[in-house]
Amino acid sequence: MASENRPTQTDRLDDDDYPAYTMGRAAEMIGTTPAFLRALGDARLITPLRSAGGHRRYSRYQLRIASRARELVDQGTPIEAACRIVVLEDQLDEALRINEELRRGRDDAPAAGTP
């Protein structure tokens, strides 16, 4: 009998962080080369997980990050600068998300002195 806490195959397909794609498939999906994905790994923008055989495996989230870096590089941005821009954009998105959560929490809180 399967445990209710164990992820199913369907759960993994819905998981943005599940390393589902091989390097070749990942490169094909975002229209780049495996060398570009390796360069992003060397720049520490994305760190693919490794299969039992040692092959790089990428998640959908990593592919979105790599795709954004590719857009910037295609526009003439050096790869190191593109990686830094992507990191800063990701940090800004996270800060805005946290800010919105805090704002909602403050708006939902009862006013001081209200039972």
Biggest sheet character: 3 strands, antiparallel
Oligomer state equals: single chain
- Number of E strands: 3
Number of helices: 5
Task: Round the mean pLDDT to the nearest integer and report it.
Answer: 87
User: What is the structural class?
Assistant: mainly alpha
The shape, in one word, is flat
Strand content: 5-15%
Please describe the structure with a list of short key phrases separated by commas or semicolons.
115 residues; mainly alpha; Multidrug-efflux Transporter Regulator, Chain: A, Domain 2; flat
How would you describe the overall organization of this protein?
- The chain is mainly alpha-helical.
- It has a single domain (18-108), classed as Orthogonal Bundle (Multidrug-efflux Transporter Regulator, Chain: A, Domain 2), CATH 1.10.1660.
- 59% of the residues lie in helices and 6% in strands.
- A three-stranded antiparallel beta sheet has the order 1-3-2.
- Strand 2 (49-50) and strand 3 form a beta hairpin.
- Helix 4 packs across helix 5.
- The termini are far apart.
- The model has no long low-confidence stretch (mean pLDDT 87).
